[in-house]
Design goal:
This protein is an alpha+beta fold. A six-stranded antiparallel sheet has the order 1-2-11-10-8-9, covered by helices on one side. A three-stranded antiparallel sheet has the order 3-6-7, with no helix packed on it. Strands 4-5 form a two-stranded antiparallel sheet.
Length: 162
């Protein structure tokens, strides 16, 4: 499930990838579910923060590699994997009509070409994501944007045109 704001679509981790990651992550390690006692972790399956008591898994995820496998692109040295929180079990995905995910935090946006090469990035202040997407997609060479957390550099979600 995805949701759209303006002309940009924020994409959570795809359901098929989630099923795989809940067994073995992109680093080849088995998932280790745990109970989140504090809440507040950014969930990449439903694009919201976790609630205390939810069952989560912290898994290694390679978003550009997975995108490239579906498009035939070769990200070369830009192929990264890193930690992401997901629900340990099935998740309905983002709620319809949700606002732009994690827009209340500072983040970075990285722009990528259709060939999987990085075209640049920007530090974005809280509330500035829509403008950052507009600027990124003003460049016709930009195929997708990755939104990442500032503190740890972790992947939050992908945005594509329309």
């Amino acid at each position: 499930m995805t949701f759209t704001t303006h002309t940009y679509t924020a994409r959570p981790v795809e359901p098929g990838a989630l099923q795989e990651l809940r067994v073995t992550d992109d680093a080849g390690r088995p998932a280790e579910p745990f109970t989140d006692h504090e809440g507040g972790d950014p969930l990449r399956c439903c694009l919201r923060r976790s609630e205390p008591g939810e069952r989560l898994a912290l898994v290694s995820y390679a978003p550009l590699r997975r995108w490239a496998a579906g498009t035939g692109a070769d990200p070369g040295p830009y192929d990264e994997q890193g930690p992401v929180f997901v629900h340990a079990g099935p998740c309905p995905g983002p709620a319809a009509g949700d606002p732009l995910p994690f827009a209340d935090a500072h983040c970075t946006v990285r722009r990528y070409s259709a060939a999987g090469r990085i075209l640049g990035g920007a530090l974005v202040q809280a509330g500035g994501l829509a403008e950052a997407f507009r600027k990124a997609f003003d460049d016709p060479a930009v195929a997708l944007v990755h939104v990442r957390a500032v503190e740890y550099g972790c992947f939050l979600y992908e945005v594509r045109r329309g």
